[in-house]
Amino acid sequence: MMDVRRWIVAALLLLFTAVLYAQPVSFADLAKHPQYKDVQISPDGQYLAATAVVKGQTVLALIRLSDKKGNVVQPREEDDVTGFVWASATRVLYSVGTRVGGYDEPLLTGELFAVNADGSDAETLYGFRKTGMSTGSHIQHAAAEYGSADVIATIPDDPNHVLVAVSSWAGAGFERGLPTAFRMDVRDGNKAQIIVAPMRGAHFVADHQGRIRFAAGVDNDGNVKVYLHPIDGDGWQPLPELSRDRSWPIAFSRDDSTVYFTCKAPAGFGVCQWDPAKQSLTPVWGNPTVEPAGLLQGLADDSIIGVDFMDGRTGTALFDGQSADAQALLALMKQFPGESVRFVSGTRDGSLSVVLVRADADPGTFLLYDAKARKITPLLARRSWINPEQMAQMQPFDFTARDGMKLHGYVSYPPGHENAKQLPMVVFVHGGPFGIRDTWSYDTLVQVMATRGYAVLQVNYRGSGGYGYDYEHAGWREWGGKMQDDVTDATHWAVTQGIANPQRICIFGASYGGYAALEGAVKEPDLYKCAIGYAGVYDLPLMYHRGDIPQSSFGKDYLHRQLGDDMDVLSKHSPINQLDSLKAQVMLVVGGKDERVPSIQGLSLHQALANRHIAHGWLYKPNEQHGFYDEANNTELYTQLVQFLDANIGPGVTK
Predict the structure, then answer these.
(1) DSSP code, position 300
(2) Are strands 423-429 and 455-460 parallel, antiparallel or unpaired?
(3) Is 228 within the bounds of a domain?
(4) Of 93, 124, 155, the domain-final residue
(5) Considering the domain boundaries, does residue 106 fall inside one?
(6) By C-alpha distance, which of 38, 66, 41, 40 is closest to 52?
(7) Burial of 389 (0-12, 13-18, 19+ CB in 10 A)
(8) Residue 16 belongs to what H/E stretch?
């Protein structure tokens, strides 16, 4: 009888678990920031450092591996730790940002701090707080006064120093000065100047001996410029051939014998090795469709074993598949089929490495890999409350646009409906627009919509990044033109494929995506039943006068080059001036402190709709910036978003 009762209890528990499992993840859980964002192991393998969320604040956690005991480094109340690096086996450098919105990213203060692995000897190395300044409009004022510091590289054989780039703000507004490279003492912040960059916004590349060897940047006309700093020279040597081909220095090999560059390759886009002696490039990887996403790290922190790329799903290309590092990675990939598996940090000798496993439905988990024992140990999950089995999966697709250009994108299906047809669908347009792309990865907003029963379509329209300069350049001056047509063509593709019910389609996007959502609604009034603009641009000429973009010469040149300066054309392609064509239901989401797209953009459209007595959804948060950061605000956003979809093209399909 006891066995029967136990069986009944077990069966009831399984039934209860199944009921819970059938419920989609809550909006509050989807809105929560990652518990752990990044994890790195110290060069000697004794400690872990991680950015962790504690009571809503991102702190730096320092954990001793031997006994799992640790310390928490907590910045000021309004700040979050945004990044960190091990300068040595015992010293960590970190940066902070102030929580004022900013599309899920705090606003960087430009400061550098340091602390020992055991939590002792905390020090401000650089920034306004080191000088005693602590009140007033501190971030902008400090930037103007002191600039910002970024770590260029550590120096393996010099644990007391790192290389940093200090970028000051010159003149009025947001005009950047020339970055200057320094050798900085990680104990007290004292620094010695090495060299000044040859151009504004330059990126430095150093070798492993602490020598600045390259600088590269993009000028105000959008041209790539690459410079070499010879070991035995004092100045910069232009490399016009590399600049002309838009090649870009990435990193030195571990022994400094070669440098990896992005480059042109016989297959199309490539990674090349640059021989310092011959000053020539040799392709080592190529792909006809996509550019490299980065270099693959090996077991040791500064080793390079291949190329990471995103051709649909995550791709892996190894330089030497028989090397110990490559074999270790391949063995791990077999243990996690269908997921992205990457070494993200390692000891100097490669004996211990941190591995990140993630996927489209999986926010990611950090593991510790012991190379000698060939053993993995779970460390930390980014979002432990997310069950990947309940999340939507992304399926890559490509199609041909109306003018013959091949485009790429993703469809996410509601969980359990991966082969369903005639679904209600949301066309989700990414922001940017230039140089940004949708990827095969966990995306909170995609999951918000897909787990509520909507197919989600994302297209990397021309202008998007990752597919080469010509693909991106094809979008210049095409706001409301061919870029918008690409989104339209992708929508028609989904209808033709039977994925979407043509009577149940909504368009949604943030920033440029907000523009594309409203422009899509007025340009294709019979295609979309509803449109959601989030921190969007609705009056294109206004971009020349309001916001942070026109406050620098680089920003002004960007607008002229990539948006165009014919105000009549821009006005014609502005949604606020095309409301006579509007049939779709509209929802607007605006942050009151948005500096990239000032709230006047959303407020003006809000008023224009009201003047026409057009009812519409409206969510305004006065303390948010270019996208919501606060978890409660995001929970409210997700709730209203799905309610709006349900009312206009829903309800979404459920199990």
Answers:
(1) S
(2) parallel
(3) no
(4) 124
(5) yes
(6) 38
(7) exposed
(8) helix 2-22
CB atoms within 10 A of CB 618: 16
Task: Identify the pLDDT of residue 100.
Answer: 56
Looking at 79, 101, 124, the residue that finishes a domain is: 124
493 belongs to a structural domain: yes
Kindly report whether the global pTM for this prediction surpasses the value 0.85. yes
pLDDT at 19: 39
Place of tokens 């209860």: 16
Closest CA to 299 of 204, 374, 401: 374
**pLDDT per 10-residue tile (average), the chain, 655 residues:** 33 39 86 94 97 90 93 89 95 86 64 95 88 46 66 95 84 62 96 94 95 92 91 88 92 93 92 86 95 96 95 96 97 96 97 98 97 95 96 97 98 95 98 94 97 98 95 94 98 98 97 96 98 94 82 79 89 96 96 86 94 96 89 96 97 82
* CA angle (430 as vertex; 510, 387 as ends), nearest 5: 95
Residues 463 and 434: beta-carbon distance below 8 Å: yes
State the CATH number of the domain containing residue 77.
2.40.128.660
What is the crossing angle of helices 482-496 and 512-523, to 10°? Answer: 70
Q: Name which of 76, 119, 117 is nearest 98 in CA terms.
A: 76
Q: What is the CATH number of the domain that holds 458?
A: 3.40.50.1820
* Cβ 143 vs Cβ 169: under 8 Å: yes
At 407, list the tokens: 């485009």
Residue 116, domain extent: 34-124
